[in-house]
Design goal:
Strand content: under 5%
Order of helices and strands: H
Number of strands: 0
Structural class: mainly alpha
Distance between the termini: 56 Å
Helix content: 55-70%
Largest sheet: none
């Protein structure tokens, strides 16, 4: 038969595991919230940029984007991150 001390120790371990699981679930919820907020922020930024570009085109009378004014990128100017 188990003594009261061992049962108390098991209950303490069970409570610690339960607290750890709750903590992880809170972290998971927080990360999902941050991810959703980030995606919404990106979408709204894109929508704002698109509407501003459209307004700028209308103000300037530009019918389409002219890429001839942009500098061409050479291979020397490209930076490619290398994952190690």
């Amino acid at each position: 038969m188990r003594s009261g001390k061992v049962v108390n120790s098991d209950m303490q371990k069970l409570q610690e595991v339960q607290e750890a699981v709750e903590y992880l679930l809170q972290g998971s919820w927080f990360l999902k919230k941050v991810s959703i907020t980030h995606k919404l922020s990106q979408r709204s930024t894109t929508l704002i940029a698109n509407s501003e570009m459209k307004q700028l085109k209308e103000d300037e009378g530009i019918s389409s984007y002219d890429s001839t004014d942009d500098e061409e990128l050479s291979c020397d100017s490209l930076v490619v991150p290398i994952l190690t």
